[in-house]
Amino acid sequence: MIKVLFFASLREQLGCDAVDVAADQLGSVAELRSSLATKGEAWHVALSNEQLQVAVNQELCDMQAAISDGDEVAFFPPVTGG
C-alpha cells in the first residue's frame, strides 16, 4: 500500500486528508496522480493543477519520481510567501 496525504486546500477540496492506495501497477507519482483523478470530478479538478507540489517519503520531488509499496506520497498546493 501507498499512503497518500493531502494538505491545505487539497484536503478541503477532496474532503479527506489521506487515502491508502494499492501499489499495483503504479511506478511513478504521475501514475498515482492519474489513478486518483479517476475517483470523481472533485479529484480530477484538485489533482489537475500543474503546479501541485509533491513529496515522496518527506522529500520534495517531481511527478516522474518512482514510488513503490510502503511509500508515503504527499500532495500540496504551491506555497506562497508574504
Structure description:
This protein has 82 residues and is α+β, with helices and mostly antiparallel strands. It has one domain: Ubiquitin-like (UB roll). It contains 3 helices and 5 strands, in the order βαβααβββ. Strands 2-1-5-3-4 form a 5-stranded mixed β-sheet. Strand 3 and strand 4 (59-61) form a beta hairpin. Helix 2 runs antiparallel to helix 3 (41-47). It is globular. It starts with a strand and ends in a 6-residue tail after the last strand. The model has no long low-confidence stretch (mean pLDDT 93).
Give short descriptive properties of this protein:
82 residues, single chain, globular, Ubiquitin-like (UB roll), five-stranded mixed beta sheet, 3 helices, alpha+beta
